[in-house]
């Protein structure tokens, strides 16, 4: 099974390492044609405005919407979650608009720019290690979205069918269970 990581900007190598640790093959995706060879894709953390701009320049917007239409799983982490969302607080336009969630960027404020914690994630366990860096929050979810995890009563992970989103960076820990969960989603849809 091949899992791609969108490599336009952001934390790519760490995701590849985790995908392989969790037992699948990782593919660095820089061109739209590569979407044909992979079974699922991770949109990494980084800077969502930059990733969005590069996605438009390199024709990834329509290509990823088509990828999703085919039922192939997509996992957005941090900035990648913002890229997946249907709407972004305070912004007129969003990016892929695939997942029925509204997100707020940099939602933890300046004092809490980054921190690490253990999360209870539905379908995994109650002690999944997570790193938050200038993280977004999911402030609204549609009826068909399943909330997988909260931190202090705010939503930090969710799933809508073949779409998975996390506010944090699961690739910056040595806990590969979130990647294993995504790989299971990909296996189910194959
Ligand atoms: N703050 C970034 C944004 O709004 C996301 C941060 C991250 O991916 N670590 O795009």
Automatic annotation (TrEMBL):
The UniProt GO MF terms for this protein read: glutaminase activity; pyridoxal 5'-phosphate synthase (glutamine hydrolysing) activity; transferase activity
Instruction: Recite the UniProt keywords alphabetically.
Output: Glutamine amidotransferase, Hydrolase, Lyase, Pyridoxal phosphate, Transferase
What pathway, per the record? Cofactor biosynthesis; pyridoxal 5'-phosphate biosynthesis
Q: Per UniProt, where does L-glutamine bind? A: 46-48, 105, 133-134
Q: Where is the active site?
A: 78, 169, 171
**One GO cellular component from the entry?**
cytosol
Q: Name one GO biological process term.
A: pyridoxal phosphate biosynthetic process
Q: What is its EC number?
A: 4.3.3.6, 3.5.1.2
Known function:
Catalyzes the hydrolysis of glutamine to glutamate and ammonia as part of the biosynthesis of pyridoxal 5'-phosphate. The resulting ammonia molecule is channeled to the active site of PdxS.
Name the family: Belongs to the glutaminase PdxT/SNO family.
Q: Which NCBIfam families match?
A: PLP_synth_Pdx2
Designated name of the protein: Pyridoxal 5'-phosphate synthase subunit PdxT
Classification from the root reads:
Bacteria, Bacillati, Bacillota, Bacilli, Bacillales
């Amino acid at each position: 099974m091949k899992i791609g990581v969108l490599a336009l900007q952001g934390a790519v190598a760490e995701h590849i390492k985790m995908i392989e640790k969790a037992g699948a093959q990782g593919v660095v995706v820089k061109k739209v044609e590569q979407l044909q060879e992979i079974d699922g894709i991770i949109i990494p953390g980084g800077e969502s405005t930059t990733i969005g701009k590069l996605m438009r320049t390199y024709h990834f917007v329509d290509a990823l919407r088509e990828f999703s239409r085919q039922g192939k799983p997509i996992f957005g982490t941090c900035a990648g979650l913002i890229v997946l969302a249907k709407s972004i607080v305070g912004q007129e336009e969003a990016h892929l608009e695939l997942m029925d969630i509204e997100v707020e960027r940099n939602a933890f404020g300046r004092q809490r720019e980054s921190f690490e914690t253990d999360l209870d994630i539905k379908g995994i366990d109650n002690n999944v290690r997570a790193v938050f860096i200038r993280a977004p929050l999911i402030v609204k979810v549609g009826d068909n979205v399943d909330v997988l995890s909260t931190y202090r009563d705010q939503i930090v992970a969710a799933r809508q069918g073949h779409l998975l989103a996390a506010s944090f960076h699961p690739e910056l820990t040595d806990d590969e269970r979130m990647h294993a969960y995504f790989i299971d989603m990909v296996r189910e849809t194959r």
